[in-house]
Amino acid sequence: xxxxxxxxxxxxLMISQMSAQTIFWGGPGNKDSEFNGGLNAWTTEGLASAVxxxxxxxxxxxxxxxxxxxxxxxxxxxxxNVAVNSKSKANGAAVFNSAYxxxxxxxxxxxxxxxxAPCYPKGSTGITSGTTATQIGVLTSxxxxxxxxxxxxxxxxxxxxxxxxxxxxxxxxxxxTTWQEFPINEVSPAVNGNVxxxxxxxxxxxxAGFANVQFRFKWSGxxxxxxxxxxxxxxxxxxxLALSQPFYTPGSYATPLSQICGDTFVIQATVSNKGGKTQxxxxxxxxxxxxxxxxYFADSIVIDDLAPGTSDTVVTNGRFDPKDLPVGEYKxxxxxxxxxxxxxxxxxxxxxxxxxxxxxxxxxxxxADDDVRAGGHYLYGNQFRTSNCWNPKDxxxxxxxxxxxxxxxxxxxxxxxxxxxxxxxxxxVKDDVLSDFSNFETTKDIxxxxxxxxxxxxxxxTCTGEADFDDINVPLLDFDGKKLRLDxxxxxxxxxxxxxxxxxxxxxxxxxxxxxxxxxxxATFNTPVYVEAQGRWxxxxxxxxxxxxxxxxxxxxxxxxxxxxxxxxxxxxxxNPVVNKTLDLTxxxxxxxxxxxMIMDLQGxxxxxxxxxxxxxxxxxxxxxxxxAGNYFVKLSTKDGIRALxxxxxx
Length: 651
Known about the structure:
Layout: E1 7-9, E2 12-15, E3 23-25, H1 31-34, E4 43-49, E5 61-63, E6 93-96, H2 98-103, E7 135-140, E8 153-162, E9 166-172, E10 180-184, E11 194-202, H3 204-207, E12 214-220, E13 224-234, E14 241-244, E15 254-256, E16 268-273, E17 279-290, E18 295-306, E19 310-315, E20 328-337, E21 350-358, E22 361-362, E23 370-372, E24 378-385, E25 396-403, E26 405-408, E27 421-429, E28 453-462, E29 472-475, E30 484-485, E31 491-498, E32 507-513, E33 529-531, E34 536-538, E35 546-547, E36 549-555, E37 571-573, E38 582-601, E39 606-623, E40 630-638, E41 641-649
């Protein structure tokens, strides 16, 4: 058994249905809970705005349609016609419509101070993620008696579209002299993303045992909006575990079959006790399956006990090397539970994520669903790692990078990519950089001799006629104009150079996936960003967006004069052609050595790769049932050389 890392206080519970807890304020049919016909006993106050004397206008309002209408905004903005997914949405909801308060519904008003409570300073010409915004508005409950309660939770539905807004619940029991803040929506959603769900916020520390409790929903920042409905106060359930921030263990979402060996998987996640009872002998489990449900790996660990309101980050003891997985799509599932206990909200007890084993493609994302950019000149891309199960005799090359871009005009409409020059750098992480990047030189650019990176390849392309989210294929070469050869067991940054925006010109953004991995922990420098104005490298954008910067590789296996050939007896095929779906081989090396055995088609595409440790003489049978009738190569490689033989599959 193993209990790992720190214990922290947790207050926010994501739930899918109301458990059988005692509601002591509000509930179905209560007009204050449901905002039936108005804000009713709730009060609202504007606390801040970017324009002097307009703070009083930064207030919450009642929406008869339980959404953020009226709302008119520039391209790409989420629809305001979507209602909060509450039970009583038909009788209305409360909304803080930050975007409308900023613009009066006119996109051109951004930064001009023409809204009733602007969140961006006068004179700003546009906004980007991270821009300072000032707009604070609160929605305050009536006074509620919690003196008889030992635990207190706020249940509510929300529809939250995020740009620079932040959200929280504040609680007072002394008439507003002091307020205790409980932040929510800190991890999810990502910028330009949304959540439409139900939450439970544990406010026990500020409310339980007090007679004059008030709580308030607090909006801070700027854009887009927050809709609230069906607000109840109830006691916490006894049994309510939750799982969050599982570590996304594959090095990349997509990894070529020839490079997946040695990408060791670990099962790690944060387990939280959000109920009112100490959980004993609870379990964290993890599974790797294919899309049909076939199990390839499972592991679990027992946690002795977990007190209410605390969390542990837990790692199981088992490890999984995906080297034997064939090309295809797979799923990792993380799950927590207490044996014999019925959990109040099972929806947050498990999470899953997909990954792929491909023929030749590295990628961090399955598909782009949005875009991002940093301010000014920046580099943005992905870290890819080659396998430690092949050696320099295997000759793998990076052939091209595939990226996607979008363009928006200065007025907020569609722009053009025509004439935009794409420059891609392939940067090798130097061998002296530790595995956790703790000694990485974050303040050195890509040209610094004393930095942590070495430029080993590049490519460029000028856009002509590409639309938003089209694939843009950029050929890659080394500095001698030759194929870009990769090294084994090496980390590479493949980054795109984006120049600073020109005033009045179209704004080009990098296509990315903002949703698939926003709730997962990722490896350090998984998606590196270099911002020139700050002169430093960052490990990625907030929210784990995964950019479309894919890398295509190929394997050159044909014997050439520069690579030593192994003895003719080192590899022999017993039966050729193959008629029984099994290729039978004999390996006979001069000395014991680590080796790699690959099956490839005549174009060099790797069909299977087998890592062999400390081998000298060995009979082997390889499954070739996935090969269509035709000719193939089998290649044996060691640090001393290679031997490649052709064989035929007859069907």
